[in-house]
């Protein structure tokens, strides 16, 4: 294929990948960093790793990469705190005045300051939470002591009233003791605090068992969850007060409290001290709250100052990290004064790369310039197609199957048209097409805004394929006009129907009573077919035959492209022993069937094409009778059958023998000097390994078996692939019938009721079914079937897809991956 244009950037040519070259660059050490930076901005050089045998720690710039990793960690630390504080980063990228070393110092200072603020804030928050818990304990324990004191005073008054003077025989002995001898009363100790509510019952049981019941425990639930000082999380807790006797009991209780994360707080003995403690705690809480607010304001100011430059700093750190990673791929010269790199670049980018090297030399004030030279190689270069935002999605469809081999014909050129068209054949309805078009036009109009936003997975896929969906919608509108379906309803858009009723009794349910009264409907299916008894047989016949015609045409296109591939690579073996017999075999059978379909449409004959094709194989010499469509058809069929039979051994036998002979000639020295001067079929068929080792034995059996498999695959595939295209008919019919069912059985049925509620419900169900089933599920189904037809039926005729993508060192690609 001739490449047009001149200069550094010739016009985009998607048919063949860009011409590539293996280049070597020798860069002085003092200008290496700036040179790689300029090459990253250019993004047209894919460097090879010349230090693959070295571990990351053994490479020259390992320490610099470690610095970049540490700075990236600090930036992640900042981002985490900004997201917690709800502070968003500025998306505007500006020129950075700081250099890398100054930025490293600044990030270190900011991290230290922010860490110090966080530590102080955590200490203050912990103290504040402890004081809040203490306040809760004072409140709950105070209520308990107050209620207990009141009940004790009441009991005391009752006892004094009942026992005025001498004790009765019925009064308890201990009570008499206590009343008579105050010195025998035991002084009890107390502990108060908070315990998590979910541990409260276990806490109580363990205390009872450990002290053998010699305690008095009172618990009360706290109304609202409190913030635990240790975990800083909201926890539902119970306030408790424990009365005990003796130091041993106290030691056991303290250990149990620690085990159950029960926070203990002192509770004063008398009421005066309690009131004083409550006032003191409240004052401290107020002071701490003001201090914490000031600390948070200071932290927010630090984070806002970080946010203003965060994106720029992040971009600089990522850029520096990628530069040092790239420098580690270069080999160090023995003098250690220069770096040597090898890589692939497009031929058109030679001048641009040389300019970048020269600019780097001048800007770094290096006394020695960089050297750029093209290397000769037998390696297979990477594949590079220069796509735009329209063609990139179609190219991704092809690349998902396999990346094109270097400079082989690219199916993406044809996919731009054939993929949306085959989708539309299955999806044809111009009403549904308009819905898809409106949705995708919104994505296209808002693409600048949506491109900068983070979308969900499904929305991201739809946005990436917005131009594919637009083409699918446009072709669906076109095929919808051909099928004459608008949500399954026909319209007389291009004129009146060609048919009319013979008399009023003929009705609309049959075509037998219709007469042709006008010219044939100018475009698409005549609307009178819809709703008639003959609608399904007519549309079935039309769509099935149309599917075969489209399938045979696309498969022929694939075989023709294989011819252009063979001519481009100067592979005459594939032209004469692959392209020619394949073209003959396919068209002797299914090309002939396509011609019969067209003749039958043009003549209106009633010949049975199934019968014709079957007996073309079973009884080729029998008379055709009423199935004859043109004079001499029997002779033509015999010739075509003979050609199909001959083409099978034509594909199978000559090619292995020709390759064997070519191999022997090469090793006898007749065509040894320049491999390129020989027929390039040797290179493509025998492979790189055979080129590198001239004494490799030619495995004729392997080549023959490979050719046998290829021949059988094509012969059987010609039948199965043609049948596979009938999915166009099946899915088109399914889409049409589903659309008709939703319209007739949902919308029209509910519209027949004279009730506004039923009508609204009917419209809602119709809209939901149309969107959910026809515009989402049917779209996905037709998309996947169109994808299969391209990957299997079309691309296997010519596409090898065993190449690898051109992956240049580019800052733009790195930022896209991180975004």
From TrEMBL:
Topology term for the membrane: Multi-pass membrane protein
Function summary: Essential component of the vacuolar proton pump (V-ATPase), a multimeric enzyme that catalyzes the translocation of protons across the membranes. Required for assembly and activity of the V-ATPase.
GO biological process: vacuolar acidification
Segments traversing the membrane: 421-445, 466-483, 546-564, 576-599, 635-653, 756-777
Signal peptide: none
Entry's family note: Belongs to the V-ATPase 116 kDa subunit family.
Subcellular location, record wording: Membrane
Xref: Pfam families: V_ATPase_I
UniProt feature coiled coil, ranges: 93-134
Name this protein carries in UniProt: V-type proton ATPase subunit a
Cellular component, GO annotation: vacuolar proton-transporting V-type ATPase, V0 domain
Primary subcellular site in the record, as a coarse category: membrane
Molecular-function GO terms, alphabetical: ATPase binding; proton-transporting ATPase activity, rotational mechanism
Keywords of this entry: Coiled coil, Hydrogen ion transport, Ion transport, Membrane, Transmembrane, Transmembrane helix, Transport
